[in-house]
Amino acid sequence: MIALIIGVALAAVSLGVIAYPLIGRRAQARATNPVLELQERREAIYQQADLLRQDLALENISEADYAREVQHLRHEAAEMLLAQQRLQELAQALEAEILQARSGHEP
User: Fold this and answer.
1) Single pTM value for the model
2) How many CB atoms lie within 10 A of CB 26?
3) Would you tell me the crossing angle of helices 34-57 and 63-105 to the nearest 10 degrees?
4) What is the DSSP letter of 61?
5) Cα–Cα distance, 23 to 17 (Å, whole number)
């Protein structure tokens, strides 16, 4: 019985050791990728707009407040989209420079 408990514990620890780097990389990639961060922020803005629509339907906010808040959220989403596009363009330009530098150094 003790051997079974020890075996299960060792198996759990082994799986944890194997899975941790895989899970950690995903979180690190998300944290270090500004394009993904902007996309996530933009999606959060869209969710806020949906909540505002629901509040309007439930008459929790006035139409004037709804219009003002939605206009603000649209402006924020547009800024996020422009920033995301700029970052993607910079990334593509950097990739092109790297490829050009590598091809220039090959025999």
Assistant:
1) 0.58
2) 9
3) 160
4) S
5) 11
Query: Which helix or strand (DSSP H or E) is residue 31 part of?
Result: helix 2-32
Identify the H or E element spanning 92.
helix 63-105
Closest to 64 (Cα-Cα) out of 72, 46, 51, 78: 72
Closest CA to 35 of 76, 90, 99: 90
The residue with tokens 């790297």 is 98
The pair of structure tokens assigned to 47 is 């969710």
Per-residue confidence in pLDDT tens, the chain, 107 aa: 777 677 666 666 566 666 667 666 555 555 578 888 888 888 999 999 999 999 999 989 899 999 999 999 999 999 988 998 898 898 899 899 998 888 876 54
At 59, phi and psi to the nearest 5?
A: 60, 35
Beta carbons of 91 and 46 less than 8 angstroms apart: no
